Amino acid sequence: MPEEVIIVRESPNLSGTVRVSGAKNSALKLIAASILGQGATTLENVPLISDIDIMCEVLERLGATVERDGHSLCIDTAPVESFETPYELVTKMRASISVLGPLVGRFGQARVAMPGGCQIGARNIDMHLVGLQQLGVEFAVDHGILVATTPKGLHGGSILLDFPSVGATENTMMAACVAEGETIIDNAAREPEIEDLANMLNAMGAHIEGAGTSTVTIVGVPLEDMHACSHATVGDRIEAGTFLAGGALLGGPLTVEGIDPASLRMALTKLEAMGCDVQVGDDFVTVSRVNPLQAADIQTLPHPGFPTDLQAQFMLLTALAQGSSIITENVFENRFMFAAEICRMGADVAIDEHHAVVTGVDRLQGAPVESTDLRAGAALVLAGLAAEGETIVRHIQHIDRGYENYVGKLQSLGADIERATVELGG
Ligand code: EPZ
């Protein structure tokens, strides 16, 4: 059975300049938020990735019209009349759950298929529900469909999240925009994508303060006061961190443009701790390395802690560093699958529940490997660039979900890499 793979060969370096695309983990929510605009919202700097295609399909299924022109997206949600998101779309992409808050805000009700888990964890939505319940939303489950109603209307509330969940913060914030009264979300997620979403919602007429901090305050406005807007998505800090890890791996100098370096502060601190030179400007970061990589302990945490979405990429760095590193994954319950794949390339990683003990080795060997999630897939491609011989990365649809033109961008930085369709057993 022919399948599309990425063939990676040992490459002497990754150097030069690459501009990152708009942030996947912002753009998906901005598209959902356009439901509240009840008109034609224009989004700029939207990445050309398959998850965006799915979210656009979700909006079209609701009745919106979506026009795409390169990295610009025009979504007219005036025609939206449905408040139901079908199972087949939610299973394709669990982030579709981000329409829950906007649909409840717009229609006072919603029917959204319960998202399943995925490779990296159960991905529960209990905190989404608790947050929305504080705003007067009542939930029932009807054959796998989450049924949300607001029998007494949508009203402000005081929410304390058990964990600073990105999705729960976003869904609650979007519904609170048009809830009657004030809403306070404590222990809110502080990711830069939350700020980006709040900035767009405020441009649409909302009154949100504190986004990006642990306490977000929303003063609700009538739905009719919300309107469409134009907004540019922030740059993708995780894509940037992925390329910077590549530069650190092979030496650079490698510059990523189109991001706020402050959004990557912890990752940049770790690159310096591992022996890299890091230079930052207003919207770029340059990494270079002369001396051997040094071991460093990493623990993933909600922002501003180390991002879980860079855990695999930095595990790769520790796998080729001098010394042993301990990597602790605190955000997801099963996000060490990358380790098994790089061990097939000669890495030395021992997993003990949420801890990985990585003992640096001198070389990796190329091998056929499988992407288990988009970040692990992206990291496996980088591993192949540093490995002796050839690496075949399979299941690259995961990578295409979140990285626009990953192969092309790496080629522009000197990678010996190509996409190909091959016959592989198994
Ligand atoms: C977002 O997922 C991102 N996805 C993830 O990026 C990212 O890893 C994650 O935030 C953390 O930064 C998108 O934005 C589309 P959470 P989300 O709610 O919102 C548990 C990538 O590679 N939890 O902060 O789902 C949950 O299972 C992806 O681009 C509950 O238990 O993350 C997880 O273990 C991967 N109940 C942890 O909390 C809830 O109600 C963090 O989840 C909500 C979450």
Beta-sheet strand percentage? 25-35%
Low-confidence stretches: none
Averaged pLDDT, please? 97
Shape: globular
Number of strands: 24
Separation, N- and C-terminal Cα atoms: 9 Å
Helicity level: 25-40%
| Tally of contiguous helical segments | 14
Strand order of the largest sheet: 22-23-1-24
**Biggest sheet record:** 4 strands, mixed
Cofactors and ligands: ligand EPZ
Which structural class fits the helix and strand makeup? Answer: alpha/beta
User: Whole-number radius of gyration?
Assistant: 22 Å
Structural key phrases:
single chain, 426 residues, alpha/beta, four-stranded mixed β-sheet, 14 helices, globular, binds ligand EPZ
List the helices and strands and how they pair.
Layout: E1 2-9, E2 16-19, H1 24-33, E3 40-44, H2 50-62, E4 65-69, E5 72-76, E6 84-85, H3 87-92, H4 100-107, E7 109-113, H5 126-133, E8 138-142, E9 145-149, E10 158-160, H6 166-176, E11 182-186, H7 192-203, E12 208-209, E13 215-219, E14 230-232, H8 237-250, E15 254-257, H9 265-273, E16 277-280, E17 284-288, E18 298-300, H10 311-319, E19 324-329, H11 337-343, E20 348-352, E21 355-359, E22 368-370, H12 374-386, E23 390-394, H13 397-402, H14 406-412, E24 416-423
Parallel strand pairs: 2-15, 3-14, 6-7, 10-11, 18-19, 22-23
Antiparallel strand pairs: 1-23, 1-24, 3-5, 4-5, 7-9, 8-9, 11-13, 12-13, 15-17, 16-17, 19-21, 20-21
Helix pairs in contact: 1-2, 1-7, 4-6, 5-6, 6-7, 8-10, 8-12, 10-12, 11-12
The protein binds ligand EPZ.
